[in-house]
Write a structure and sequence with these properties.
With about 260 residues, the protein is of the alpha/beta class. It is about 35% helix and about 30% strand. The protein has a 5-stranded parallel β-sheet, with helices on both faces. The protein has a 5-stranded antiparallel β-sheet with strand order 12-11-10-14-13. A hairpin with a 5-residue loop joins strand 6 and strand 7 (about 145-150). Helix 2 crosses helix 3 (about 60-65). The longest helix is centred in the middle third of the chain and has 32 residues, at about 105-135.
Amino acid sequence: MRVVIVDDESLARERLVRLLSRAPDVEVVGECADGRKALDAIRDSRPDVVFLDVQMPRMDGFALLDALPAGERPIIVFVTAFDEHAVRAFDAHALDYVLKPVDEERLHHTLARLRARRGEQRAAARYHAIAQAVQEGEAPGPRGVASSPAGDRLAVRNDGGRIIMVRIGSIDWIEARRNYVRLHLGTEWHLLRETMGRLERRLEPHGFARIHRSTIVNLDRVAEIQSRDTGELLVVLTNGLRLSLSRWFRERLEVRLAGR
């Protein structure tokens, strides 16, 4: 992790440099005594993390953040002698708020949180790269070399944070889950951050149809359509699962099934 330290107290900067130097994965790439110099240092060195004091001459820590565009902001850890700024610090999306004098054990906790955040950022970047490649019809292979066409796969993140490729044909049905959709594959399921509308358009050429505002099915898995005495319509899958069929989608579903 590339780190810039911003603090107008030289002793505080020296202590933080000394403590951080004991971490093998941390490199201090800049030290600044005021916000204006820090602004230039951050733009020049592009650090991953900034340890930032609040009260400084010329430009305080919050003014420094306001001067940085959201897309250029590194991870922020506030380091200050005053605890009354904590609420405002977290409103500014700081990762942590550490009081001076910095305790080594407390700093270890902060570094652990930083490593976790950096891991999340790398996983997210990898996920978006794969998702974009899949959308464009290619998936990145080893060492960045494009592999075979991947239009029949979806990139999803499993519980361990790893990106896996799911073959569209292996999906039985899909349900909406707030800002996500849940892909059901036999006894397994995966979450994907996507809207039902976009996913419906993406999967329709692969033999999928929407049967409800919150449900999409693989037509190869549809065994029959049932109508209950209550008037409720159901789509029965080959595994026996019964899913509600909206009357709005019934006619279109029947046409799609008749054409198979």
